[in-house]
Structure formats: structure tokens, C-alpha cells
Amino acid sequence: MFTGIIATTGSIARIQVVNGDWRLTVRSDALDLTGVQLGDSIAVSGVCLTAVQLGEHSFSADVSRETLAVTTLQHWREGDLVNLELALQPQSRLGGHIVSGHVDGIGELVSRTPDARSERLTFRVPTGIARYIAQKGSVCLDGVSLTVNAVNGNEFGVNIIPHTAERTTMHLFKPGRKVNVEVDVIARYLERLLSGSVADDDMARSAAIATGEGARNTAVASSEGVRNLLARAGFIK
Fold first, then answer.
1. Which CATH fold would you assign to the domain 8-86?
2. Contact between residue 184 and residue 131 where contact means Cβ atoms under 8 Å apart
3. Is 149 exposed, middle or buried (0-12, 13-18, 19+ CB in 10 A)?
4. Residues 5, 94: contact at Cβ < 8 Å?
5. What tens digit of pLDDT does each residue of 166-185 get?
6. Whose CB has fewer CB within 10 Å in the chain, the N or C terminal residue?
7. 29 pLDDT exceeds 90?
8. Annotated domain spans of the chain
9. Whole-angstrom distance between the N-terminal and C-terminal Cα of the chain?
């Protein structure tokens, strides 16, 4: 697990094609790898990778064909700058939000405009993941935890302060740039909870019809069931 607070940046030192997939070597003089062990997770521009080789200022990770297919990693080249974050420790501060490093899709930067000392960036994402992005919610872009300012269909806007731009790869972003997008995991679990309740409601509705209780009673029960589910999950009181 990660927080979306980037520790530093690094560069792609080497890309090896091995039996159809990749072995990626990342170098960073600023990333402290002292406590990292083989098998530990490291987020590379939002993609959770497993360290299989460690050097003094570098690490290597194997990249599956699935990861290449669903992330921007397929476009990376040697020398490219990437965001880096080590896995969350029990004593770590949760400064951003809970990030898994499991990319949901690829987004694209639509526009970038100044706003006093910060900048407003608008991104477009596939319709399939747009529904998980909410105003004032959290989203992870290339490993960076950000707050969503506004949502318009499958586009949303975020603000980038100078510190974030300087400490991450975001100072390089121009319209057309592809980014890894991970939506807030809470939205994923909420959808799963609600889809489970729908299945339960369908069963209850069928039983009610079979016993002659009528559609009106089952509709009321369905609505109450969703409210109770949200309440148990802590989303409403």
C-alpha cells in the first residue's frame, strides 16, 4: 500500500525484453533503499512493482504483459523520469490517501492553465472509470495523490501547487500526456457493496412475488436495504 505522496523521482536506466515481457531497472540517487528487501513493493509512477534486484541506487522489477497493456509503462523509454514511492510502513504518516498501485486505466491531460502560483490541470479518463471520480474526492495520477476540484462527464480538474510540480514528474506534463489513473479504493468497495445489495434485493423481490406480498412492499424494502447498507458502512447516519 502507498499514500500517493511522492518521495522523489528517478529515471529508467534499462529496459530488457525477457520472453515477451520486461525487466525494468530504475535508478535514483535520492531514493533511500537502505531498508528495502527483495520482494518489497515500490510504486513507479503509480504502478506497484516488486523489487527483484537491488543496487546501491537502483532496483529492478519484472513487468508482466498485463501491466504493460493497462498502464502507460508500455510507452516508457530509457531515460524517462518517473515518480517513486516506497511501500507504506505501519508508522508512516498517511499524508495523501490509500493507494494500492493497481492502475484502473489511462487518462490524458486535456489542458493546463495558471491559477496564481498553482496550476489547474484537466484530465480525460475512459467512461468506465469516470463514475468513480467525484468532486472533492481523491484520485491518483502517475502515483500522485490529488484532490478532484471539478467533474464534467469523463473530464475532471485538479490543482497542482509549485511543490508538487517540482517534486514530481508533473512539471513535464503537456496536453496530450498519458497518465496512470487509480481511483479511490473506497469508491470501488462501495460499488461492490451496492451491487451485492442489488442481488439481495432481487432475491427478496422474487420471494415476495412468489408469496404474494406485492411489488410495493419489496420496493420499500429495497430502498431501506440500501440505506441500511450505507449506514453500516459508515457513509450515512
1. Elongation Factor Tu (Ef-tu); domain 3 (2.40.30)
2. no
3. middle
4. no
5. 999 999 999 999 999 999 98
6. C
7. yes
8. 8-86, 105-185, 187-232
9. 29
